[in-house]
Design goal:
Blueprint: E1 9-15, E2 18-23, H1 25-45, H2 51-82, E3 87-93, E4 96-101, H3 108-138, H4 143-163, H5 171-184, H6 187-214, H7 218-248, H8 253-256, H9 270-281, E5 285-290, E6 293-299, H10 300-304, H11 316-319, E7 328-330, H12 335-345, E8 349-354, E9 357-363, H13 364-383
Parallel strand pairs: 2-3, 7-8
Antiparallel strand pairs: 1-2, 3-4, 5-6, 8-9
Helix pairs in contact: 1-2, 2-3, 2-4, 3-4, 3-5, 5-6, 6-7
Length: 384
Amino acid sequence: MNGPMFGKSINLFRLFGFQIQADLSWLILAFLITWSLATGYFPDQYLQLSMTQYWGMGVLGAIGLFGSLIFHELSHSLVARRFGIPMKGITLFIFGGVAHMEDEPPNPKSEFFMAIVGPLSSLILAAFLYGAMQGGRAVGWPEPASGIVGYLSFINVLLAMFNMVPAFPLDGGRVFRSALWAWTGDIRWATRLAARFGSGFGIVLIVWGGFNFFTGNLVGGLWYVLIGFFLYGAAHQTYQQVLVNRALRGESVRRFMSRDPVTVSPDLSVQALVDDYLYRYLYDMFPVLEGTKVVGCASKKHVGNLSRAEWPHKRVADIMEVCSPEKTVQADSDAGKALAQMNKTRSSRLLVLDGDRLVGVIALKDLLKYLAFRLDLEEGEKTA
């Protein structure tokens, strides 16, 4: 599946140049999968094994499942790279895995191949694991080993089948969108229709989950409901991303920046920073300049690390930090990338540089105001 970033993630390792991460919700899934395999699936399928064996099978089965998810998402990322689509990495989270694209595919062909390779890779892996299971049984593998490999073969078939449902942003939904896009040449219309299928499928899962929940299948019903809500929200969010990307395409940061940024001196007292700048302008962050050179950033977070009694005696130079690349953007950069950077870093303002010289500040509110105006205008044109 391809989709947006989620909550806080931890880096695990790099594979073929892609950063593999785990969302903190992944820890919940890791426990639930291990527990359900060790106490439910494997004891039902394989009798008269010890509890230690069941838990060992559960742990190895969960590890194999996450490896299968990485294999699935890695196939997306490798094909995307082949078509020149920048990928941020792969994140494991509570509903599986997601490969993060920095931009939409450039054409229907790249969308189709990038999407279809995920289910195909899962089916190929399933066939390989099934063959390994049969071969292992022929040479006398222990029953637990055959059980784990057989489970992973089965789960990869399910993964492929679920992802081929034509519900955006599942892989099948992206294949569906690529067909609509190739037919009409309009990615916005294609995304809107595919997203409606995705939202509809999400609602179906929610209803089905509610039915299961109230008829005794509490855990299964709850999972259907949670996945349904996720798909419903993801379909809507991805469509909104397409609208935003199209609205900002070709627009540079320079167009939206404030050319007279409010700056502070490193010699300014923290008390003056609070009274004359933070309370007056209500900005989260101020660039610190020596001449025309940016030497740091000072924010209300830095002030909050001090006691009020220290404010008159500390200078901005004492609390500022070096402005990281995440807090700056070049003036000729794409405005859409600046917005994505703000979302990623949860910043409301970025310093705009021309080389290493400060030329302005771009604010989130200005980008959102432009987007709201343009999207309202275009929606009005379609309904007129």
